[in-house]
Amino acid sequence: MADAIPSIEDGMAVEVVFFEGKAISVEMPNSVVREVEYTEPAVKGDTSGKVLKPARIKPSGMEVMVPIFVATGDKIEIDTRTGEYKGRVK
Which long-range contacts (CB under 8 A, 24 or more apart) does 28-33 make? Predict the structure, then answer.
């Protein structure tokens, strides 16, 4: 369950599994859309291959590796099962 906490936000629909009155797991949607709170600007000329950089995500502050073209303020889709970047959202 601890893995799900950074992806959960107020009002989000999730399924909680209980056993003997205690929550034992949380079923999340497969992906969530979040805003990038901060990431370093891309370095000019650093475009060869699959270059990734860390980005801090609102509101949890979790860190996700994103492609260099992602900027602060962009909305991105994150896979809740792996915590990985899936794509940029318009």
Answer: 28/4, 28/80, 28/81, 29/80, 30/79, 30/80, 30/81, 31/77, 31/78, 31/79, 31/80, 31/86, 32/7, 32/77, 32/78, 32/80, 33/75, 33/76, 33/77, 33/78, 33/89
Domains and CATH numbers, the chain: 29-89 (2.40.50.140)
Tally of CB atoms within 10 A around 57: 23
pLDDT tens by residue, 26-59:
888 999 999 999 999 887 766 666 889 999 999 8
Predicted TM-score (pTM) of the model is 0.79
The per-residue pLDDT for 81 is 87
CB atoms within 10 A of CB 35: 14
